[in-house]
Amino acid sequence: MRAVGLALLFVAFFATVSCGPSGGSSVAKSGEPGVFRYPIFANPTTMDPQKVQDGDTIDMLQQVYEGLVGWSPENKPVGYLAEKWDMSADGKTYTFTLKANAKFHNGRKVTADDVKWSFERSANPKLASPVSTAYLSDIVGFEDKFNGKASEVSGVKVIDPEHVSITIKAPARFFLGKLTYLAAAVLPKECFPADQEVSDVKDMIGTGPFKIVSYQPNQVIILEANPDYHDGAPKLKRIERYVLGDAYTRLAKFKKGEIDLCQLQRQDVPAIQKDPKFKDQIHFYPRPSIYYVGMNQLMYEPFKNKKVRAAFAMAIDKDRIVNQIMGGINTVANSIVPPGVPGGDRKDSQAYKFDPAAAKQMLADAGYPDGKGMPPLTLTFREDQPDVKIVADAVASQIRANLGVEVKEQSMEWLAYLDKFNKKQQTFYHMRWAADYVDPENFLSHMLATWGPENKLGYDNPEFDALCKEADAMPELEKALPLYAKAEDIVLQDAAWVPIYFQRDAELISPRIKGLRESLFGHLPHTTVTAD
User: What is the mean pLDDT of residues 412-432?
Assistant: First the structure.
């Protein structure tokens, strides 16, 4: 659930054509009953569920689109469009029964043909989804179609209008978790282009509890309740997502009562905790997410040398960054798999400890004494997030002070940053990865194995790969955890990248908002939320 997608600028208008949801809206007055107002940090990266990669946009689109399964508050896959499912004895075929009352926003009933068509679209090579193979390549024939070697996804079969089967290449304990990702959203064929990215509000037809009715770039996205939602009409009548990139502006608007939820930057938390008006409105949420510093071996020759990477790892004082500079809201990361994920936040991991003297010697041993001979280096990070800049500033400063390496800093507009990252062109960067499902595979194999879709920095260790491959194939997670631990220690000692901290969100939530449903992954679709 990280982030990458090529964006379009979207035209703002109300959806009034036959495929679109009916109705219109205008921005609500402050505190209007039944209206939930909260910001999105930047314009959505895409309006297409099968191309979305960033958490901010996913949070919005999950109100609109659904797949066969989604997350429960207990962090388990549960039926969304699927009433139930059965698994074959060999663990490779899932047969889903669709809910009889599931309808698209245009009023048409969802059928197994829609499920089949949606998987075919996600695999369409012309659509070129940057995420679909990461989550759906377990399905027989999916990669063949994506790579232009087949005309259909043979592993998805329509049994009858209410039943569809999905066959995967080999049993995978995390397959249902992968199906929760929006790459597997079910869409109406008559409203979605098969090979083009969706960019018009009128085409955004899903089955979710809310319908997008207008979008004004850099201003606001309006979502209205879907009264025919299969799980019961939402209690809200409208959601308003204001595009607010500046953290100070977000906080100021919350204090004025103009928005109902505000994610706090860490430096703002102490003052809010002392404010008698707002201190009881702070809520803390641990997330299975890690912020790290990446070192791309494909773009920077010295990073191919393990000693250079290890020197960088030992030169970064994570404890000072997290507990002093950032105020101790987050948890120092000395492993890759975060708390909340089985096997996460290991206290006996083999991560490098802060040791500037050893770091300096290691860099000299690598052939770069006091940083001499190191090519120019720039640390890139996402703009408009003060916490991210604070960490980037601290990392760059410590590398300069402890290694003598001159590091420049560069903030980047979010879409430009993600595009460059997706092309494996970010050289030295500060980034986050958030769990898509609660399995170590999503952090180790998925991110760092040579076949991992999120391995954007050229890391390659055959021993690590072998351990991950063996662990991934085990049906019982408990038996796989010792292998993942060994693999994690290998990658930590290789310093493929430097873990900095595990995420813990601090949010201000207005007391007028009730009924938020939580999971490790964040707020679930707002089906039960009320706004007094």
Answer: 95
| Euclidean distance between CA atoms 176 and 352, whole angstroms | 35
Cβ proximity of 384 and 42 under 8 Å: yes
pLDDT at 6 over 50: no
As a whole number of angstroms, the distance between CA 217 and CA 220 comes to: 7
Confidence tier at 348 by pLDDT (50, 70, 90): very high
Within-domain flag for 14 = no
The answer to whether residue 356 sits within a structural domain is: yes
pLDDT tens for each residue of 199-223: 889 999 999 999 999 999 999 999 9
Q: For residue 242, what pLDDT is reported?
A: 97
* Residues 207, 166 within the same domain: yes
What is the signed CA dihedral for 78, 80, 83, 86, rounded to 10 degrees?
-50
What is the CB neighbour count within 10 angstroms for residue 298?
15
- Supply the pTM of this predicted model: 0.86
Cα 350 to the chain's mean position, in Å?
A: 27
- Residue 41 structure tokens: 């940090």
Domain CATH for 366: 3.10.105.10
* Confidence at residue 8, expressed as pLDDT on a 0 to 100 scale: 34
* pLDDT greater than 50 at residue 9: no
Residue 221 belongs to what domain range? Answer: 35-239+511-531
DSSP 297-340: TTT-GGGGSHHHHHHHHHH--HHIIIIIISTTSSEE-SSSSPTT
HSE on the CB side for 458, CA within 13 Å? 19
The residue behind tokens 């975060």 is: 338
Structure tokens at 339: 């708390």
User: Tell me, what's the pLDDT at 3?
Assistant: 42
State how many domains the chain has.
Answer: 2
| Rounded Cα–Cα distance for residues 450 and 454 (Å) | 9
β-bridge pairing 428-434 and 282-295? antiparallel
Least Cα distance to 444 among 490, 400, 384 occurs for 490
